[in-house]
């Protein structure tokens, strides 16, 4: 007798509600990704060990210079040491935030069949709408989440046709929240600019300004999981964005890789979690950190988070360390590339043939390339290697910096070459299609986003 093959539901919510006690193998993560996963509720209660900093923004605009600068210094310190923080007294009312949560929660309370009316089509490149993570090219595993993704600002770049019509409050409240997050982002950019010794409007200008900086919202829905010790809601990644702002329903699940260990973020009432993304890390030449993080799940409570990713335009801006952040003592850590090329570097698998193109474009010699390759293989945990090699160890960073040592006149000349014609741009894009085994976790389904930039 041939047993009937039961198809796996396309939505994680449907799978979770089917009564299964064992999750399908497609959702079981590799063992090396499961380190540090315990009881998330117990982990969140622990007081010992490092804690994600909480930054009080009440005095961010104070007329008292000393009080204002104290606030600025605390925010800068968190950006330098952690790259993530809880923001309190951020100026967005609790009433508005509650409405945002109710609207998103009400949408996900709808039957799956109703939500399917808003389904996206990832195969055709349409990532806006209701969806679930497709198997990625790196490890072929799935994440334990469904989501709703859409552009929320500027208004002229939104597509309201794909926004949920139920509940009725969804469009007005999400629109207002996006405006207020955009204003908050301006304040944060100003503080981070000043922290680099720049004019306060510099970073905002560098990421597109009011006209071109995109705000993309992703509502993450993490159903209860019968085997949370084997799954991940969002795999380990850094956000490709400039900044990411996150709300959640006070169910723990965010973990940060800090000083070699996974740290569970506490649930801080009336706070917004803010991440520094790769874009700001690049512009600051690594002074501000884009921290590796992931989302874990549990078997007791549904977790929902609302992430807004602030992204620069894909092609208009060349991401590279600002000249003021580069010195002889601190050479450029990052090669110039557009935001689109940065996403391609992180999201797509690379091969050795394209590594040769990278060597040609950036004029690296064989010894430097071998040193970078050797550095990238020194750690067993591939999901941690990129984080460590590129960000944590100055000696390892120096190796990569040496590979990109044409910082001043040579780098300027190279940038001109890269901008001259489409062939050179294509050559640069190929740069980042080399060996990507160490970026196994940096492949979010949001190909217009970020990631995970995943939260």
TrEMBL record:
* InterPro entries for the chain: DIOX_N, IPNS-like_FE2OG_OXY, IPNS-like_sf, Oxoglu/Fe-dep_dioxygenase_dom, Plant_2OG-oxidoreductases
Q: Which cofactor does it need?
A: Fe cation; L-ascorbate
In what residue span(s) does the Fe2OG dioxygenase domain sit? 213-312
Q: Which UniProt keywords apply?
A: Dioxygenase, Flavonoid biosynthesis, Iron, Metal-binding, Oxidoreductase, Vitamin C
Protein name, entry field: Fe2OG dioxygenase domain-containing protein
Listed PANTHER family: OXOGLUTARATE/IRON-DEPENDENT DIOXYGENASE
> Which species is listed as the source?
Solanum stoloniferum
Q: Which GO terms describe its biological process?
A: coumarin biosynthetic process; flavonoid biosynthetic process; pigment biosynthetic process; response to molecule of fungal origin
GO MF annotations, alphabetized: 2-oxoglutarate-dependent dioxygenase activity; L-ascorbic acid binding; metal ion binding
Signal peptide range equals: none
- Superkingdom field: Eukaryota
Q: Which family does it belong to?
A: Belongs to the iron/ascorbate-dependent oxidoreductase family.
